[in-house]
Amino acid sequence: GGAARRGEAAPLPRMKRRDFSLEQLREFDGARNPRILLAVNGKVFDVTKGSKFYGPEGPYGIFAGRDASRGLATFCLDKDALRDEYDDLSDLNAVQMESVREWEMQFKEKYDYVGRLLKPGEEPSEYTDEEDTKDHTKQE
């Protein structure tokens, strides 16, 4: 980032609720798209405001646009922790699964929950606008 771009970009509008396949999630990696999403435990979060961590230059940039569950569970920040196909986490032990759930809670507190990460063949939910607004008020 050049020093000229000191003025932070205006925050992106809140993303509408939607579910993602792994392929769809992949687009939101902060490079091809300014928005950064990642999945934890089957939930997709918008972590754009944490871009200094999750952006292309950030220490956790590898998780942008990906399912971060395994990497977070095993504290592994390299490509080995990323699966290109859907990861059901079935081989993680109880301690690691507990860690995944704790990360999920942390993301829920800090970032916007967007929707679910779809398993292969799973249909996305239809989200109505009411659901969106209902959630807004709950979060304030």
Automatic annotation (TrEMBL):
A single Pfam family it belongs to is Cyt-b5
Composition bias, kind Acidic residues: at what positions? 123-132
Protein name in the entry: PGRC2 protein
Where is region (Disordered) located? Answer: 119-140
Q: Which residues form the Cytochrome b5 heme-binding domain?
A: 20-118
Q: Name one GO cellular component term.
A: endoplasmic reticulum
In the record, the note on similarity to other proteins reads:
Belongs to the cytochrome b5 family. MAPR subfamily.
Gene name in the database record: Pgrmc2
Report the superkingdom from the record. Eukaryota
